[in-house]
Design goal:
By secondary structure, the protein is α/β, with parallel strands linked by helices. Strands 1-10-7-4-2-3 form a six-stranded parallel sheet, with helices on both faces. It has a four-stranded mixed sheet with strand order 8-5-6-9. The longest helix is centred in the N-terminal third of the chain and has 23 residues. 39% of the residues are buried. It comes from Beggiatoa alba B18LD. Keywords: 4Fe-4S, Electron transport, Iron, Iron-sulfur, Metal-binding, Repeat, Transport.
């Protein structure tokens, strides 16, 4: 997927004006949030599990080289192969070669964010392979020729009416000419088309939620079962995963899985949890004859031990997206690359550079909801601040913004001047805004007032207001 992160402002503006997108996002927003809240409330030990999961991931990252080598050893012992890819380009080259060596024509794919990160579909299609996404959401956006807008619900930006038109346009070639409008009928229509592809596929490509070092198993969690058909019916099974997906044991996996479903979709567990270990064995009724795992670094090893280290604990549940007011207003495509929302605003500048994705760390109110709901306790707002600091030090903040930050930094280092200045400003704004109680135009705040009114302050700073309240309480 080609990055367009540098166009964030324009894309965000277009998203806010997109009536269909706003309708789709409104439908999805409360569902994710309410279901997660109820699922967490029903599990008294949720916070204890968060603590344990963080410990597991931190232990693994500390000894990452050991566990990756152990995983490779177990994969080889079960008849598979591990391929190491330092960059996305290397990973694409490996996978294309594996498909050519298998004389493949049709390739089915399960949902994989690493597949999106390395743009594997484009690479395979350029070599004339027929690539079919089997996850319903991914299948929808493949037909629409769009990237995913959410890491667990790729087509969350689509309304049912849009999907109806999309299926009607593309499925007539399969003899499905009746336009379906009900959800169940649409799912059944997609199933009819995809079932035939499963049976003729030569290669199946899936992602991995976890890589278990002690057994060499790859783990996927799905709600549709498409991943099972993708990994066990074709002759060749290829797994794409990043190096941070490895964990030590099956017991560790079960701990984190208890957090994953609840955080992602509000389920105790997803409908399917599938472990794949090596090639088809004697007596197995299904399974691949060749098993390959492509392990991607793509900048992750550089994150170990630095200010972005905590991001390597991410289990891609999507909770930070679901609770982000910015993502909830503009959707995922505005972010311009594979990973949207708070986690994307941290990852994309690391992988593509701040020059390319400098707007993303600033597309955040720093309200902290993402950190609050993250099952792995990742301090996303702190890392976004680190990006902003890097931007300033690298001279990527220009013009009025740099001047304003320099001026603010001066006053912030002199508390008495800061408090005096804010008190005077509050009184002035109160005086000029008391007639209407708001401002339709305000110097240095045109980005706000161009689309909404700015409420007039009440005439005092928060600190003075708080001291006055405290004084009243103590009397």
């Amino acid at each position: 997927m080609q990055s367009q992160s540098h166009d964030f402002k324009q894309r965000a503006t277009a998203a806010l004006r997109d009536v269909q997108l706003q309708k789709a996002m409104a439908n999805a927003k409360t569902g994710f949030i309410d279901k997660r809240r109820l699922a967490v409330q029903a599990l008294p030990e949720f916070e204890a599990l968060r603590t344990r999961a963080k410990e597991i991931k931190e232990h693994t990252l500390k000894y990452l080289d050991f566990y990756l080598e152990q995983f490779e050893k177990q994969v080889v012992a079960s008849g598979g192969q591990v391929h190491w890819a330092d960059t996305a380009e290397t990973a694409r080259h490996i996978i294309v070669k594996l498909c050519k060596d298998a004389n493949a024509k049709v390739i089915t794919k399960g949902k994989s964010m690493i597949g999106e990160e390395i743009a594997i579909n484009e690479a395979l299609e350029a070599e004339q392979f027929e690539v079919v996404e089997t996850d319903l959401g991914e299948y929808i956006i493949q037909l629409a020729k769009e990237p995913p807008s959410h890491i667990i619900a790729p087509a969350v930006h689509k309304t049912r009416e849009q999907i109806t038109e999309l299926f009607h346009q593309h499925h007539q070639q399969y003899g499905l000419t009746e336009k379906q409008t009900e959800r169940a009928a649409l799912v059944n229509e997609a199933r009819q088309v995809l079932r035939k592809k499963y049976l003729i596929a030569d290669v199946g490509i899936t992602g991995a939620n976890f890589l278990v070092a002690e057994t060499g198993s790859t783990v996927i969690v799905t709600n549709e079962g498409n991943g099972d058909l993708t990994n066990c019916l074709p002759r060749v099974h290829i797994v794409t995963a990043s190096i941070d997906k490895v964990i030590p044991t099956l017991e560790d996996m079960t701990t984190i899985i208890r957090l994953l479903g609840r955080s992602a979709t509000g389920q105790e567990m997803t409908a399917y949890t599938t472990l794949t270990t090596g090639i088809k064995r004697t007596g197995d009724i299904s399974g691949a004859e060749a098993f390959h795992v492509v392990l991607l670094d793509n900048g992750r090893s550089r994150m170990l031990g630095n200010e972005f280290h905590d991001m390597l604990r991410c289990i891609r549940c999507g909770a930070c997206l679901n609770h982000c007011p910015v993502y909830g207003s503009i959707g995922g495509h505005a972010y311009g690359w594979v990973y949207p929302g708070p986690m994307g605003s941290v990852l994309t500048p690391i992988m593509l550079g701040l020059q390319e994705a400098g707007d993303l760390p600033n597309a955040c109110t720093l309200n902290g909801r993402c950190q609050q709901v993250c099952p792995m306790s990742i301090p996303l707002p702190t890392m976004l601040r680190h990006h902003r600091i890097r931007q300033y030090k690298q001279g990527l903040v220009h013009g009025r913004a740099r001047w304003a930050l320099t001026l603010w930094a001066f006053f912030a280092k002199h508390p008495r001047l800061y408090h005096a200045g804010t008190a005077i400003k509050a009184k002035i704004l109160r005086f000029f805004g008391k007639k209407h109680g708001y401002f339709q135009q305000l110097p240095f705040a045109s980005a706000w007032t161009v689309s909404r009114d700015m409420p007039a302050p009440q005439g005092e700073t928060f600190m003075s207001h708080w001291k006055r309240l405290q004084k009243g309480f103590n009397q």
